[in-house]
Specification:
Strand content: 25-35%
Radius of gyration: 31 Å
Order of helices and strands: HHHHHHHHHHHHEEEEEHEEHHHEEEEEEE
Distance between the termini: 41 Å
Number of domains: 3
Number of helices: 16
Oligomer: single chain
Number of strands: 14
Largest sheet: 12 strands, antiparallel
């Protein structure tokens, strides 16, 4: 599967990955070189502009937003760099080179329509709106299907087709104003066939080498190009901000912040890309606390809301990293408490520190005490999802022996599915996520539960940096929906979740490679099958997971 452009940009920005940057150069060196060549008509200057553009990419990789359409960004950079280069060229030198260079370039441009279109094309593209320009570049220059264009721009396939068609019509009108009269069909054919010119074979390698050095080995003329292009890019961005800001004032009567152009607050270091990946350290033990408060209203007359407050502390012991880049982990329970209230009345309480003399009166406390010191073993994949859990049958026997009634009672509180979820610390849809301040992304997971498989769809955002319990943490927020997955056997389920909403915060320490704290708030409607009768009960569950200490084993 082809790696997404911005994933490669992030990988390079965070890890200085030469392979990631080489892949980007290989994908787009022809696009940049062709754009520069159309503007300058000078192969040697086009090569120098291509080097300058990729050096700028290397320098600015950490500042590009997650939604950047890279070929469009590179095209704009090449047009601006070429414009600056042409300003510094003396007209006489251009005229002297014209006849010689025309014969060198012309063989690749045998289409008569292309001969007229080529000198105007890039300036015409720059006059289009950003989405229109992106659509044209993706479809005609990068040979993307309309489905792929739509995926990149967040449009349906049909919308992408219409957008591209409208953009082509706008180009036709721009050409017509400049004395080049054609049809959209001829334009589409000429651009699609002739717009890409292969860069010299050695250019990709030299561009990569120079860009990875951030231009340290570049010639004086290339450095001048870079400086000039960066100035033009900065001014272009400033003009865009001014125009959008003015429009906002006209519409609302007040100044508002435009999310797409407002830079998130923070130091330069805090706005650089950062790798978010759980990294356990073998030889350490991680003490964590999980607190959950569950409120359920059965809507029965005279029955108060039931609130269940459950707290567990447990150690994680990383055993080793697996061949699949997942982990082998062990979890050991350290303490457990449970308090159930009806209104203001404590209906039930149990604690793992309970005196054994009270076991007969409170068997749940006895079960909790027997759980302390017990271990479960987890085998996760690279994304943090548990593939296998060992030790559950042994835990049931440790707590309940061979008494079938006692075993059933224990499983009712701690079933295998619920305990398996403890091992999915920091589960994501990718092994490692490279993000920067202000980024947003979506995660879709299927989570096993007593209510069948749950479909969890959340939207995440990197809000800011915060100090949390002595750690400098990425503060992430998330909101989304939870529901019983359609593939679950609804008839066999005792509980079904509907209208589930989830929101919360996560504080992640990238230096330690672990989540320091998470807070989650779930609201849902439960459909409970009570002997064939369906009862609806609103549910609220608040869960907080906190890292207490990291110690040597």
């Amino acid at each position: 599967m082809t790696t997404d452009d911005m994933d490669l940009v992030r990988e390079y920005a965070a890890c200085q990955s030469e392979q990631a940057f080489e892949t980007l150069v290989a994908r787009y060196v022809n696009l940049v070189y062709s754009t520069a060549l159309r503007q300058t008509r000078d192969p040697h200057l086009a090569e120098e502009i291509t080097q300058a553009v990729f050096i700028i990419l290397a320098r600015k990789a950490g500042w590009l937003g997650a939604r950047t359409i890279l070929p469009a960004w590179l095209h704009r950079a090449a047009v601006l760099a070429a414009a600056d280069a042409l300003k510094s060229q003396r007209r006489r030198a251009q005229r002297e080179q014209e006849a010689h260079l025309q014969s060198e370039i012309q063989p690749a441009e045998t289409d008569p329509a292309w001969e007229l279109i080529s000198p105007l094309l890039d300036k015409a593209l720059i006059q289009l709106g950003e989405t229109d320009r992106q659509a044209v570049l993706l479809h005609f220059f990068q040979k993307k299907t309309f489905a792929e264009v739509g995926c990149s721009l967040g449009l349906s396939e049909d919308s992408a087709r219409k957008r591209t068609s409208r953009a082509l019509e706008k180009l036709r009108k721009i050409f017509s104003k400049n004395g080049v009269h054609s049809t959209t069909t001829i334009l589409a054919g000429a651009i699609s066939t002739c717009s890409a010119q292969a860069a010299p074979a050695a250019l990709a390698k030299s561009v990569t080498t120079m860009a990875l050095a951030k231009g340290a080995t570049a010639s004086a003329s290339t450095l001048t190009l870079i400086k000039g292009a960066l100035k033009i890019m900065a001014w272009t961005k400033a003009k865009t901000a001014i125009v959008i800001g003015a429009a906002a004032i006209l519409v609302t009567g007040t100044v508002i912040t435009i999310g797409e152009i407002a830079a998130p607050s923070g130091t330069d270091a805090e706005r650089r890309p950062v790798v978010m990946q759980t990294q356990w350290q073998v030889g350490k033990k991680y003490l964590m606390r999980q607190e959950s408060i569950q409120t359920m209203d059965m809507k029965n007359p005279g029955q108060a809301k039931q609130v269940q407050n459950q707290t567990e502390t447990f150690y994680f012991f990383p055993i080793k990293k697996r061949d699949n880049n997942g982990w082998q982990l062990q979890l050991e329970f350290e303490s457990l408490t449970l308090v159930v209230t009806n209104g203001n009345h404590i209906a039930f309480a149990a604690d793992s520190t309970q005196n054994p003399a009270q076991d007969a009166r409170n068997p749940v406390g006895a079960r909790f005490r027997k759980m302390t010191g017990a271990r479960l073993e987890y085998f996760t994949d690279a994304n943090g999802k548990v593939e296998k859990m060992n030790g559950y049958p042994e835990l049931v026997t440790r707590v309940a022996g061979e008494d079938q009634q006692e075993r059933a009672a224990f499983k009712d509180i701690f079933n295998e599915i619920a305990l398996e979820k403890y091992g999915s610390v920091g589960e994501d849809t990718v092994p490692r996520r490279v993000v920067k301040l202000g980024d947003r992304w979506a995660i879709s997971l299927k989570v096993p539960s007593n209510a069948g498989n749950l479909q969890v769809d959340i939207k995440c955002a990197f809000k800011n940096w915060e100090q949390r319990a002595g750690h400098k943490c990425m503060h992430l927020t998330f909101t989304g929906a939870i529901s019983t997955d359609a593939s679950s056997d609804a008839a066999a389920l005792r509980i079904k979740i509907e209208k589930g909403k989830v929101a919360g915060d996560v504080w992640f320490d990238p230096e330690l490679g672990i989540m320091v704290e998470s807070v989650e708030d779930v609201n849902a409607q439960l459909k409970i099958n009570q002997n064939g009768q369906i009862v609806t009960a609103p549910l609220n569950e608040k869960t907080r997971v906190t890292l207490i200490t990291v110690e040597d084993v």
